[in-house]
Structure to design on (54 residues):
């Protein structure tokens, strides 16, 4: 059986100083996931890619 990877599509938003929320555009009623800038950096996600600054 082949597995299919679904693309992640979402929105990253600054919600407090050093805290970001990630919303899933495929599940608009789901609660956004919240991350600190340290957690995003550890995951290799750069908020600047989304037009945000740390």
């Amino acid at each position: 059986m082949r597995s299919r990877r679904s693309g992640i599509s979402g929105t990253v938003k600054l919600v407090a100083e050093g805290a970001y929320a990630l919303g899933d555009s495929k599940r608009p009623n789901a609660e956004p996931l919240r991350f600190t800038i340290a957690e995003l950096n550890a995951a290799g996600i750069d908020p600047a890619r989304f037009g945000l600054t740390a």
Observations:
- Residues 10-49 form one domain.
